[in-house]
């Protein structure tokens, strides 16, 4: 007999679940509290539980799997077409159940606690970097209002501010100068916090074999390697490297009718943070590496630099999937060696 499939809509305090009893055919759409849901699933035979990949979904996936059930995480975009009538918890649970029944429905790989923790460090670092940029730009703007211009670049600009503090004190009114000096100290504290998070990220990269393998790919450093491993989760969730590249929004948009398909710019779907890291890494290879691949050189002669960078970022993502899925180490000119 086939296992029962549950459609679970999760929230902070109330949880709605939809299923059909296999023995009686009874349709059930029931609300639970958190503890009631855990106790109910703990008493049920091994079943298939589908839920939306949203906040706390990965924790619930680990919890439900520990109770002996198979967990299916679905992207919200694939569930929405099955919502009937008004959007309520009951209709959402039924939509999740219906989406899970569709053949070929793609799912999201549940993340481990360590992978979630690593992504948390990345999010914290990203916010600190954004805050630092805002603080530095404001510092430049406020000084410019009093005729003080600084060298371009964050490091050069901050170094110049520290060198010219005495001069700036004579130019800027005292009430503002004290606040600017405090702001400069605040930027230094942000930078110290960023360095601390980066040390934690690098430490995790060194202890994870998958991260070390990805770090061997040109253009992928500790930040990109750890973010990729934590985001991908189980590489078996993707059929190919191209599917991973599509998941990260690094492939062209497609639109067509009447049998004619048109390709546009990249779709920019998925995690913009991972896409940004890959594209920045690709730019570093294009403009700083002395040993670029031949196809990069050839493409650079025909296409703009931005197009080449995105193409290289897409290839880096496909290479990363291949290494993870096949448990291989990076080899330069692997395709040429294979055909030789």
UniProtKB/TrEMBL annotation:
Coiled-coil region(s): 180-207
Keyword Coiled coil: yes
Domain of life: Bacteria
Keywords: Coiled coil
Pfam families: DEDD_Tnp_IS110, Transposase_20
Keyword Lipid biosynthesis assigned: no
GO MF entry, a single one: DNA binding
GO biological process entries: DNA transposition
Positions of the Transposase IS110-like N-terminal domain: 7-145
Residue ranges of every copy of the Transposase IS116/IS110/IS902 C-terminal domain listed in the record: 211-292
Protein name: Transposase
